[in-house]
Every structure is written in C-alpha cells, then in structure tokens.
Amino acid sequence: MRKAKVLFKNEESGILTQHDDGSFTFRYHEDWVTNNDRQSISLTLPKNEKEFHSKYLFPFFYNMLPEGSNKQVVCKLNRIDSEDYFGLLMTTAKNDTIGAVRIIKLDN
C-alpha cells in the first residue's frame, strides 16, 4: 500500500491511497468536508462524500500525468515503470503542477 497527501492551494485536503490489489481510494479529511470555506478538489470528487473508491487511478489524478515523450523522459530519469501511474504522479505532481493540486508522498 502506498499513500500520498493531496494538497489544494498548499493545504492538505485528503489522502490518496493505492492498495496492494492496485485499486485506489481518495479520502477527504473530516475538517475539509465540514468547512464550508473549502471547495472540492475536483467536480468528479465532490466533498459531500468523504471517501471514493476506484479500480483505477481516478481520472482527475490521471490527467495530471505527463504524456508521450515527456512521460518517457520522466520515467527513464526517475527509473519509474511507465505503467506505475501512482509512482509517476508522486514524482511529477509534488512541486510544480498546473492548477491548485499537488501530490506529496507519505512514508508508510
């Protein structure tokens, strides 16, 4: 199992988890859900639900990944399998992303 913090505008909004069977869970923090001043990180992950499950990486997070030759370069330089979407996400979305969401690896 691997976990990552999901930051929205540099505030931790929830946890993204890849389970041992390859499925994924995204869970908002309780205080994020109850605070009316904080918005959902995505229209596809509304904050009225605390936990989401998927067999695959959620499309919102998948769309943050590099594609084509950029993906090849990132995978080669960081020694990441091109099918390891979670590893690729943690590598590419931790510092500089388009939009307000960043992904930071959590040590288990």
Quick rundown:
This is Serine/threonine-protein kinase HipA. With 108 residues, this protein is an alpha+beta fold.
Task: Determine the structural class based on helices, strands and strand pairing.
Answer: alpha+beta
| N-C termini distance | 8 Å
- For the record, the count of structural domains works out to 1
Q: Would you list the SSEs in sequence order as H and E?
A: EEEHEHHHE
**Separate helix tally:** 4
The fraction of residues in strands falls at 25-35%
- Rounded to the nearest angstrom, the radius of gyration is 14 Å
Share of helical residues: 25-40%
Shape: globular
Protein model, in words:
- Helix content is 26%, strand content 28%.
- It has one domain (2-106).
- It has helices at 30-34, 59-62, 68-78, 85-92; strands at 2-8, 11-18, 24-28, 51-54, 101-106.
- The protein has 108 residues and is α+β, with helices and mostly antiparallel strands.
- It comes from Cecembia rubra.
- GO terms for molecular function: kinase activity.
- Pfam families: Couple_hipA.
- Keywords: Kinase, Transferase.
Top keywords for this entry?
108 residues; HipA_N1; 5-stranded antiparallel sheet; alpha+beta; kinase activity; kinase
Topology:
Layout: E1 2-8, E2 11-18, E3 24-28, H1 30-34, E4 51-54, H2 59-62, H3 68-78, H4 85-92, E5 101-106
